[in-house]
User: What shape does this take?
Amino acid sequence: MHVRSLGRTAATLAVTTLAATALGLTAVAPANAAPASAAPATSVRAAAPGEYLGEVTARTGLLLHDKPYRSARIVGSVEYGQIVHIFCRVQADDVEGNSNWYLLADGRWAWASAKYIRSIGAVPHLC
Assistant: This one.
């Protein structure tokens, strides 16, 4: 990884942490993984150490938001079965019994409900 990328990652983490604090978001225990029967049958690579990946399980696709709330502005979507890179997680708006939200780091920096993302490997760290 380049020094510039490390600096950008550290800066993004600091801004994300400040934003989460300003929004009054709190950390939570790891989200429960979806049952194996609920996950789509796809072949995915294992996450590298320090990398958090997830697979979208929402059959109709997953909406992305600018904040970790269902009522927040929609900034995009991700298709069913797509692998996403997760930066960190917070507890925010409850979605069908799951209040965890993931900050996606696929170049869009948007929030998605963890209810519809199956973690691949380690559960993402807290923001």
Q: What stands out?
A: The chain has one helix and seven strands. The longest strand covers residues 83-95. The chain has a mean pLDDT of 74. Residues 3-22 form the longest helix (20 residues).
